[in-house]
Amino acid sequence: MVLELVYEFRADWIMKWFQKCFWIIWVMSRSVLGWFDSLTNMINNNSKLPKDVPDWSEEKRRQREERRIEKGEQRRKEKNE
Fold this sequence. Notes:
- The chain is mostly helical.
- The protein has one domain.
- Helix content is 88%, strand content 0%.
- The chain is rod-shaped and about 115 Å long.
- The chain starts with a helix and ends with a helix.
- Residues 53-81 are annotated as: Disordered.
């Protein structure tokens, strides 16, 4: 009778301890994952160029368009001659 109460008390205590540890580990893991998520968001957001810095792809596109216009003008001059 007494042993059954002791074992039952131990089982309850172990289950409560396990539940507390589980929730503590779960909350800590979620906070660590959230911290890594926010860290990666900060890294990704900082990798983008600010608006005042010219975008190199835009600059290259503009240069290509200027070259295309110049070549078109040269062809027109050659056709007229």
